[in-house]
Amino acid sequence: MNPRQGKFRVVVDEERCKACGICIKACPKNVFDQREDGLAVVAREEDCIGCHICDRLCPDFAITVVEKGDKPLSDEEVTKLNIARNYVRSYVPRFVWCPGCGIGIVFQGIVRAVHQLGIPKDKIVMVSGIGCTGRMPGYADFNTLHTTHGRALAFATGIKLANPELHVIVVMGDGDSVAIGGNHFIHAARRNLDVTAVVINNGIYGMTGGQVAPTTPTGRRATTAPYGNPEPPFDICKLAEGAGANFVARLSTHQAYMPIFTKIIAKAIQKEGFSLVEVLSQCPTYYGRFNIVEDPYKMLQWLKEHTYMKGRKPKHEGDFVLGVLYESDREGLVKVLNRWREEKINASAK
Amino acid sequence: MSRLDLIQGNEACALGAIKAGVRFFAGYPITPSSEIAEIMARELPKCDGIFIQMEDEMGSLAAAIGARLAGKKAMTATSGPGFSLMQEHIGFAVMAETPVVVVNVMRGGPSTGLPTMPSQGDIMQARWGTHGDHPAIAFAPKDINETFWFTVEAVNTSEKMRMPVFVLMDEVLSHMREPMEIPDQVQTWEAPPIENPESPFLPFKEGTEAFAPVPIFGQGYRFHITGLTHRPDGFPTNDPNEIERKMLRFIKKMEILQSEILDKNPDMHYEKVELEDADVVIVAIGSVARVAQAAVEDLRSQDIKAGLLRPKVVWPFPEKPLKEIDGNVQAVFVAEMNQGQMVYEVERILKKTPVHKINQFNGMLMFPSKIVEAVKSTLR
Ligand SMILES: Cc1ncc(C[n+]2csc(CCOP(=O)(O)OP(=O)(O)O)c2C)c(N)n1
Predict the structure, then answer these.
(1) Is A269 within the bounds of a domain?
(2) In this structure, are A271 and A139 located in the same domain?
(3) Is A211 a member of any domain?
(4) Residue A319, Cα to own-chain centre: how many angstroms?
(5) Which residue's CA is the nearest one to ligand 1's atom 1?
(6) Is residue A260 part of a domain?
(7) Ligand 1 atom 10: the closest Cα is on which residue?
(8) What is the pLDDT of residues A135-144, one digit of tens each?
(9) How far does the CA of residue A95 sit from the closest CA of chain B (Å)?
(10) Does residue A193 sit in the same domain as residue A312?
(11) Is the same domain home to B373 and B237?
(12) Spacing, Cα A201 to ligand 1 middle (Å)
């Protein structure tokens, strides 16, 4: 028997669980059972080894795993200890996202990174465009701004320059960031604007019902690419690097339980200048159903199979490289403008 | 100490904005408004302000709105094609109830049209350009002095009303030079601070439609802003009652603007020139109003009792002075540098008086003789 077994409390919040089944299939110790209505129930809590695969992969923040303390805790008390939920606004009963959607997983990664860094909620502004990803700020207990489709980075430019003390995290879908918002994206990178851009790349337009995106791989299907996408996709990371970003990383939602996931997001938040984190994410409803598989857990497995860490070798053509892909130490825009003011304006006035 | 200077329209606009407290400007170059950006680029860094040239006009207005949400009074300036591109974010600023000033130096259109020639072709775009029901406020200065002061008023009004406000100039006004006395200081309006924010904080609480605090990010009361129709707490809603409640705020804003600002200062809303005994009345704004004034003098010298009604704020349109003359004058002439836009508003308001159009849309400022001729041939 694993020495860690028997030391953890595991609680599923029925109100939030959307029966996507990820936790049930991902748990290495088979702690969960599936109820008739699909919801996950904790059946063998004593077998839990505290690996946190289930709670970190839960898109709905519905699972809490904590080490047992001296006194026994009720389910409600356990749920209160969920760090991620502490960052969800109290008015939010459930997220709007489909069961098994990767956006909630990335959301959790972001709030855990903020928590690790210890940045007060008041000092964070989360900005989004429009799309499924765009709904994240409405749920996050930060200063939040849900803008227009594609323009989040332009709004963020004004916020950051007007008050550089604020940490600005911009979350965007792939269509949002590099189709309609492509111009703002490359210019924010070029300026080395001090914001953290998190692009959730599900390879398709989620919100509008599965249309082709500039990130849809050639040949993949979408409602507006019924014979497969004839066009080549963007490589968002290369785009950011080429445009001048200071920090470029790619993650995948299947990594969400690994420390590297939050660590890289945290690093991006801390980094001066423009940092980009692209997170490959599953859209089971459209991309998965049209192209791979509708089951969210199987989508995560597909992501694992078709990605590789930087330095390793890809298994198939078209596999995605993960990790910190580029880093430089150019001065961020805020510092440049301050220095300019000192050197060129105040000095010449003297 | 104020100083007397010979300044250009665009310069007056930029200086007025800075005096009124604008400390953030984002823009994209376009003739004939570019000097506004150039002056902002030169002056703002000297007074702790931020200038940024964005990648396009959608981005410019977006950045300005973002800056206001982070606490700096903000403005952008553009012309025709850029104004078209800004429409989506004009609607966003309305929905988000965020103060911001948008200057549109009107040039000939449609499309790229006449980059260096004047027009008044965007009067209706300023009113109805963005999609959905929305209020609109637009100042229309006629000279350099007014350009300065109306820009100050536009900044103050947008702060008071928590919404975007336009300054409609035209190419003539933007590039013309006139002497003007630039004051050291102007009266500004500062939104009251939020001292004891309730929890949950309600950025759109009833009673905050106008003359209310403007919530700012990073002050300890966390709130949400969205372009989706939302509840008083800022979160999106599909509840018909909540939707109506939000939409009524826009109507309320305009009622407050009318009763608390425009009715109390009719001089701010419109100017009447020789209306008391007038038989014919010309309605005109901006540089065309100057032409119309010359036409009035000319007509009077020919024993035709002409007068001028000049909206200084074109949106909301001054209804009251028009209603006052309705039925008491022989005819009203609406002179515009377009194919007829403001005339729709005049026709809507006047029930008993014939309305005639005087339009010029060849890129040239109208001559007084055109108005004089039109009036005389109609009266004949
Ligand atoms: C100007 C404009 N054009 C189109 C839309 C419709 N629209 C909303 S979301 C979206 C695309 C969403 O896809 P993506 O950005 O990849 O984000 P996801 O929903 O997949 O997270 C589109 C086209 C819009 N809201 N505004």
Answers:
(1) yes
(2) yes
(3) yes
(4) 20
(5) A149
(6) yes
(7) A131
(8) 999 999 999 9
(9) 13
(10) yes
(11) no
(12) 13
Give the pLDDT confidence of A285-319 residue by residue, as tens digits. Answer: 999 999 999 999 999 999 999 999 999 999 999 99
Q: Which residues of A touch B65 (CB under 8 A)?
A: 155, 158
CATH number for position A300? 3.40.50.970
Q: Are residues B287 and B224 in the same domain?
A: no
Rounded to the nearest integer, the mean pLDDT of chain B is 97
Concatenated DSSP letters of B238-272: --HHHHHHHHHHHHHHHHHIIIIIITT-HHHHEEE
Split at pLDDT 50, 70, 90, the class of B200 is confident
pTM: 0.98
Kindly give, in sequence order, each residue whose CB lies less than 8 Å from that of residue B249, ignoring residues fewer than 6 positions away: B97, B204, B209
Q: Is A145 within 8 Å of B55 when comparing Cβ atoms?
A: no
Domain stop point among B197, B229, B264? B264
Same structural domain, B282 and B154: no
Domain count along chain A: 2
CATH of the domain at B373: 3.40.50.920
Provide the domain limits for residue B286. 271-379
Percent of chain B with pLDDT over 70: 100
* Residue A344 within any structural domain of the chain: no
Beta strands in chain B (DSSP E): 3-8, 24-27, 50-53, 74-78, 100-108, 114-118, 138-139, 164-170, 177-182, 224-226, 270-273, 280-283, 306-311, 313-315, 331-336, 355-359
Residue numbers of the domain that contains A42: 8-82
Residue B54 clears pLDDT 80, i.e. is over it: yes
Predicted local distance difference test score (pLDDT) of residue B102? 99
Handedness of CA B74, B79, B82, B84 (dihedral sign): positive
Which residues does chain A have within 8 Å of residue B228's beta carbon, measured at their own beta carbons?
146
- What does pLDDT average to over chain A? 97
Q: Is the pLDDT of residue B1 over 70?
A: no
Report the domain count for chain B.
Answer: 2
A338 touches chain B (CB under 8 A): no
Note the pLDDT of residue B380. Answer: 81
**Identity of the amino acid at B73:** K
CA distance linking residue B118 with residue B109, whole number of Å: 9
CA distance B66 to chain A (A): 5
Crossing angle of helices B368-379 and B286-301, rounded to 10°: 50
The yes-or-no verdict on residue B358 having pLDDT over 70 is yes
Give the span between the Cα atoms of A193 and A274, in whole angstroms: 5
- pLDDT for A313: 97
Q: What is the pLDDT of residue B367?
A: 97
- Residues A164-196: tens digit of each pLDDT: 999 999 999 999 999 999 999 999 999 999 999
ipTM of the complex: 0.97
A161/A125 same-domain check = yes
- Which of B310, B276, B304 is CA-nearest to residue B292? B310
What is the mean pLDDT of the segment spanning A231-260?
98
Selected for mutation to probe chain B from A119, A124, A125, A143 (highest B CB count within 10 Å) is: A143
Report the C-alpha gap between B102 and B104 in whole angstroms. 6
Non-local CB neighbours of A137 within 8 Å, separated by 6+ positions: A126, A127, A128, A144, A145, A146, A171, B224, B226
- The DSSP call for residue A223 is T
> Which chain A residues in 105-144 lie under 8 Å from chain B, judged by CB atoms?
121-123, 125, 127, 130, 137-138, 141-144
Q: Which of A101, A205, A280, A290 to mutate to test the pocket of ligand 1 (most atoms within 8 A of CB)?
A: A205
Quick one: pLDDT band at residue B211, thresholds 50, 70, 90? very high
CB contact burial B197-220 (16+ within 10 A = b; e otherwise)? beebbbbbeeebbbbbbbbbbbbe
Residue nearest to atom 22 of ligand 1 (CA): A208
Same structural domain, B40 and B70? yes
pLDDT, position B346? 98
Tell me the two tokens of residue A244.
Answer: 């001048």
Residue A121 has pLDDT above 70, yes or no: yes
Ligand 1 residue neighbourhood (C-beta within 6 Å)? A 130-133, 149, 173-176, 200, 202, 205-208, 213
